Amino acid sequence: MKHLVLTGACALDTILTVPAYPPEDAKQRASSLQVRRGGNCPNTLEVLHHLFSPSDQANIKTHLISTLPAQNSPAITKIHSSFGPGSTKIDFSPCIHREGHTESVSSYIIRSLETGSRTVVNYNDLPEMTPDEFERILDTLLMSNSKEEEDSWWFHFEGRIPSTTLQCIHYIRTHLPPNTTTISVECEKPNREGLTSLAAEADVVFYSSSWAESRGYHNPEACLRGEAPSTRASLMLCTWGASGAGMLTRRKLGGGSGAKELQEEDEYVHHSPATPKDGKPIKVVDTIGAGDTFIAGVLYASLSSSSLHMVDASSPSSQKAKLAFAVELATKKVQDEGFAHLAAQQQQP
């Protein structure tokens, strides 16, 4: 059995679509209003369950760790139902319910039709998860799930509070064998202190363009090559909006003797969104969750038994196919509202 554990915030998003972003102290009528569940990890989970085949559902168990309001609050019903049919396949038991709180994390998003920009204001009254709570959750997960030799665990962290996440990573490293454990993290928010420390400890790192630009990088390759010396990751990815994304893979080379470290070889590949057959530009409808969709594409290509990369997961061609699949999936996502339309995505990486 493969276990995928995602840790991050779960929000209810209120999305106001406006003709243009309003100036300060102005009054403007929105052209539409939507309320839907958000949060990086929940979005990624929803996309994954749109992609998973019946075989995947039977062999990959997904778990969500998120801080939520009281179990009997109306927000919980909204959150669970928002995953659609896939909700029955997600293990919500690791979530932390804050008794006495009735509201989830809230995000208010102003989406401009003029520029496509998204301005997000968050509100969170829920106490954040502590390292001690994560340790108890992990202990329970390990006790309640079979510990067969072929079991593997992939832990993905949004990276909301780096100091807490770093302690969670250290606990995982001391309680699970490295050959069956993968840890991935997101470096998304610019200027968030501590993200580089998370990247240093992860096996897979996802960098956003906004984070990269805040560090002075002007393209994905510069970011990945610039950050490579400071992380142990064997797989690094950086999204760059309409320009696609880059991937840096690192593999050990032979050579050296005795206690000398094996040398590493870095290979960079880039994939840009495919041009539609009619040659017309891609029409962007909804970019909310595009990065989460990209991450879902990489996780799917890494875990799904129906993915072609499983023949030789370390081959350069399979890594390129993994990146191409994730970019094209995110490209498809931005052309329609939400994630439901991704259920029709049947091509394999």
UniProtKB/TrEMBL annotation:
Q: Which Pfam families match?
A: PfkB
Q: PROSITE patterns attached here?
A: PFKB_KINASES_2
Q: Which InterPro entries match?
A: Carboh/pur_kinase_PfkB_CS, Ketohexokinase-related, PfkB_dom, Ribokinase-like
Which residue positions does the secretion signal occupy?
A: 1-20
- All copies of the Carbohydrate kinase PfkB domain together span 1-336
Enumerate the PANTHER family for this protein: KETOHEXOKINASE (PTHR42774:SF3), PHOSPHOTRANSFERASE SYSTEM TRANSPORT PROTEIN (PTHR42774)
What protein name applies here?
Answer: Carbohydrate kinase PfkB domain-containing protein
UniProt source species: Podospora bellae-mahoneyi
